[in-house]
Amino acid sequence: MAAPARHHTLSVLVENKAGVLARVAGLFARRGFNIYSLAVAPTDDERFSRITIVVDVESAPLEQVTKQLFKLINVVKISELDPSAAVERELMLATVKAGAETRSQVTELAAIFEAKIVDVGYEAMTLMVAGTPEKLDAISDLLAPFGIVESQRTGRIALSKLARQTTKLRAVKDRGA
User: Fold this and answer.
1) 49 neighbors 42 (Cβ within 8 angstroms)
2) Domains and CATH numbers, the chain
3) What's the predicted TM-score (pTM) here?
4) pLDDT in tens, 53-97
């Protein structure tokens, strides 16, 4: 049996206007809702932005969050993204101690996790890795013994998975040669 969800992931389509993000963040602060992750960017339609908000289930009942968000005039649409029906990703930059004696080990670990080495110094290197939150947690755990100098993760971004319908294959008649 799967563990109960600890977070709600909301995809909020808003008008792309100055101050909208501040109003959304202010609403969460006033209500005492804990934001676990927040990412915002314009959509393909420049009139709108998409805010992906990951909210702590304990601090914010989903129904209450959506009702409060819909009260904001600039909110166009709210969708809850079920983790099993969504594609979720984060990006992490991590600077790791990697002197001459450990550099090859860090490089091998980066390759295993499909991380890209984006900067190299004499005693450290910076990796960029994108993936699920669990993947980023895993590489962080494995990099920790080398010494993480600093790291930064983006907020989680997510979109609904695409519908997949099976297509029936028709047999092709052999015309004979």
Assistant:
1) yes
2) 7-84 (3.30.70.260), 87-160 (3.30.70.1150)
3) 0.76
4) 998 877 767 888 888 888 888 999 999 888 888 899 999 999 999
